[in-house]
Design brief:
Blueprint: H1 3-9, H2 20-27, E1 32-33, E2 35-41, E3 44-50, E4 53-58, E5 61-68, H3 72-80, E6 82-88, H4 93-100, E7 113-114, E8 121-122, E9 126-140, E10 143-155, E11 162-163, H5 169-178
């Protein structure tokens, strides 16, 4: 056993977690790209807006998407074993908001086509897309981390959509002052509160 392994197994008293609002404020300051994760539920397309997507491995080519355990899209992905990450372009804010809504019938308002490799829904307003097979699914609190092995994909030479840091320096300072943490925090100033529905759940509640 290495010293690092030993340190991880030492018995310590767990520290209390921060409150939900502090967690969302801190993680909401992290700028991230925006995507819509899609799949098929039988023959019916499903999808949700997700900013909790990242690359994991180059060999094999794996990416990760975090999905709420309450999501109907998650159930469809696990049943079908395939999904697509549609990385939205800068002009696709309305698409992001549409798929962030808990309402049904988003695909009635957006055209789509089946991916060439998996048949999963591809959206038009993207800078890139990744067709994936589920490699693994790992439970993490109230979410499931989907590991997808990329089996198809493509990109376009346009600018991507991103969520900037959402919390002002004043809000951060007040929150940490109230919790007794003394630290100078330098973050973006003047950004509006995050919109509802985006599924990294550090910002808002999940839908989909």
């Amino acid at each position: 056993m290495t010293p690092q392994d030993q340190s991880l197994t030492e018995t310590t008293t767990p520290l209390p977690s921060v409150d939900l609002q502090t967690f969302r404020y801190v993680m909401g300051s992290f700028a991230s790209g925006v995507s819509v994760v899609t799949t098929l539920d039988d023959d019916r397309p499903r999808g949700f807006t997700c900013s909790a997507v990242c690359s994991v491995s180059a060999d094999p080519p794996l990416l990760m998407a975090s999905v709420s355990n309450r999501s109907g899209t998650l159930k469809a992905i696990l049943s079908h074993g395939r999904f697509t990450v549609n990385i939205l372009g800068a002009q696709a804010r309305s698409v992001s908001q549409l798929f962030a809504s808990p309402a049904q019938g988003q695909f009635e308002h957006v055209p789509w086509k089946p991916g060439a490799v998996t048949g999963m829904p591809l959206l038009p307003a993207t800078v890139g897309y990744a067709e994936c097979e589920v490699d693994n699914a790992v439970g993490a609190g109230d979410h499931t981390l989907l590991l997808g092995r990329m089996v198809g994909g493509g990109t376009r030479q346009v600018r991507g959509l991103a969520f900037p840091g959402q919390v002002s320096a004043v809000d951060f300072t007040r929150r940490f002052a109230a919790s007794g943490v003394r630290r100078e925090l330098r973050v973006g100033v003047g950004n509006p509160p995050p919109s509802e529905g985006v599924c990294d759940c550090t910002r808002t509640r999940c839908s989909g």
